[in-house]
Specification:
Order of helices and strands: HHHHHHHHHHH
Number of helices: 11
Radius of gyration: 20 Å
Distance between the termini: 56 Å
């Protein structure tokens, strides 16, 4: 009986491992080339999915190889860590990054060739901040972003001016229309390897159905954001 249990366990583990794409497989197909080259920085991610999420974001947004370097990747990972510590869920991060992709494309079209890797990374983080402000009803305020992500880069008043400049590239319109947003959300979502007998995706949630964890998560987020403000 014990041998049979071990055999079944081994078979289940093998199936599970086969169903999860390797880091290299995901990187070569979906991630920005610099994230492939600097894959060791995955260890700096607060959540194991953050590295791949940012790699897809940078590729879809159109950042060049010269825009992405090790300090920049670490900075972007730190920004997602801060958002996760404020209890934003993975789906909410994808919504933010989908909006930030649109903002980044407009920004890169306006001044991309002039940006250094340091400027590009800080700009990407600031665009994520803008996306957070537009998409979330509770947000981590600018002074917290400056304290933890921009303090060594520029003064708070300069950051406010840069935010207004970035908004001007969007025509001061931060909304992303549904067809484009839906497409970007799909591109940012990892593509799992299908397993026989297991549906590729879960059935759609009925309209009006809200997960029971949402109120609790929002309450936790409010507490954590207030904690950041007290620090």
């Amino acid at each position: 009986l014990k041998s049979a249990f071990v055999l079944v366990t081994d078979m289940c583990m093998a199936t599970h491992l086969d169903s999860v794409p390797s880091a290299q497989g995901v990187a070569s197909a979906e991630l920005h080339s610099r994230f492939v080259e600097l894959a060791q920085l995955r260890a700096h991610a607060h959540d194991e999915s953050d590295f791949s999420l940012l790699g897809r974001f940078c590729k879809i947004a159109g950042f060049s190889e010269e825009h992405i370097d090790e300090p920049g990747i670490k900075l972007m990972l730190k920004s997602l860590k801060m958002l996760r510590l404020c209890d934003f869920a993975g789906e909410e991060l994808r919504v933010m990054l989908a909006h930030a992709v649109v903002y980044a494309r407009a920004t890169l079209a306006a001044c991309g060739p002039l940006m250094s890797s340091c400027e590009a990374a800080h700009t990407a983080v600031l665009l994520i901040y803008l996306a957070q402000c537009y998409t979330q009803d509770e947000t981590c305020p600018m002074r917290i972003w400056h304290q933890h992500l921009f303090r060594g880069y520029c003064a708070a008043k300069d950051l406010d001016a840069v935010v207004m400049k970035l908004m001007s590239f969007q025509g001061y319109v931060l909304r992303v229309e549904s067809p484009e947003l839906d497409d970007l959300m799909l591109q940012l979502e990892p593509t799992p390897k299908p397993v026989a007998g297991i549906p590729h995706s879960l059935p759609a949630r009925p309209a009006g159905c809200v997960p029971c964890c949402v109120p609790q998560r929002r309450a936790t987020r409010s507490t954590r954001i207030r904690g950041w403000l007290r620090d």
